[in-house]
Amino acid sequence: MKKKPTFRILILTLLFCLAGNAQLSAQVLRIAVAANAQQLIKRLQKDFERKTGIKSEAIVGASGKLTTQIMNGAPYDVFLSADTEFPQKLYAKQFGLQPPKIYALGSLIICGKTNLDLKNWPKILSGNKARRIAIANPKTAPYGKAAEEALKYYQLKDKISSNLVYAESISQVNTYIQTGAVELGFTTESFLYEHNDKSKLKWARVDAGSYGEIEQGAILLAYAKKGKLKEATQFFDYLSSSAAQQIIRKSGYHLPIVKKG
User: Fold this and answer.
1) How far is CA 132 from CA 68, 86, 121, 260, in A?
2) How would you classify the pairing of strands 56-61 and 202-205?
3) Residue 158 domain-assigned?
4) pTM attached to this predicted model
5) Which of 1, 37, 43, 167 has CA 20 to 30 A from 103's CA?
6) What does the mean pLDDT of the chain come to?
């Protein structure tokens, strides 16, 4: 005959279950964020926590790589991409709880610690006056894709291919620019709002007509149902609030035009 579980074992089992539930409830909201928005997300997190008391953790990387991680089961509750293509892909494959929304519009610039006048940057590049030019991986980083489109538009892609330095993400491009590892780099205009000493930078906007519009999408992920659905939904809705939009605008992004039905 099997012995009945002792009272001590029952108590230990109960304590173990309670500890597991406490750990689950204490888990912070996890937000996957495209590298271009790593400074923006810090400001949004701080304001969101002040307003709601909800703590969050940002996981930063290239949009394409984060998408792959999500599809492989990464425990993220919300995803802020540098485009809408990756969030749409996730939603189509049922990794999202509702259709993604555009939370910001990005702007591409060419930038560097240089003495060159970048007003006519295509001429500078075609004249081979910049030996090392950073660009994010076009396959995984939307700003890299936009930069490649601009280079093709100006018929420069093949001419300067040997000068291009491919970075894993826009964050790495920014590091290359800041450290002087490259003479120039294609990055987001928000970088100017993050750099401590703008006086050392020369930059110029890349004509928006030379690349596809950079619509940055956010999606509420299905993983949130495993414990943080309420908090994730609150953050997802917060992105459309006037407070969040003010932070987004002050961080070097444009706001999407809301279509009235």
Assistant:
1) 30, 29, 14, 46
2) unpaired
3) yes
4) 0.81
5) 167
6) 89
Give the separation between CA 186 and CA 205, rounded to whole angstroms. 10
| Residue at 91 is within a domain | yes
Q: Are 160 and 234 in the same domain?
A: no
Residue 7 predicted with pLDDT over 70: no
CA quadruple 110, 165, 147, 249: dihedral positive or negative?
A: negative
CATH number at residue 66: 3.40.190.10
pLDDT tens-digit map of 85-107: 999 999 999 999 999 999 999 99
Q: pLDDT tens, 144-186? A: 999 999 999 999 999 999 999 999 999 999 999 999 999 999 9
Please determine, for residue 11, whether its predicted confidence score (pLDDT) is greater than 70: no
On whether both 46 and 133 belong to a single domain, the answer is no
Are residues 126 and 149 both part of a single domain? yes
Q: Report whether 110 contacts 118 (CB < 8 A).
A: yes
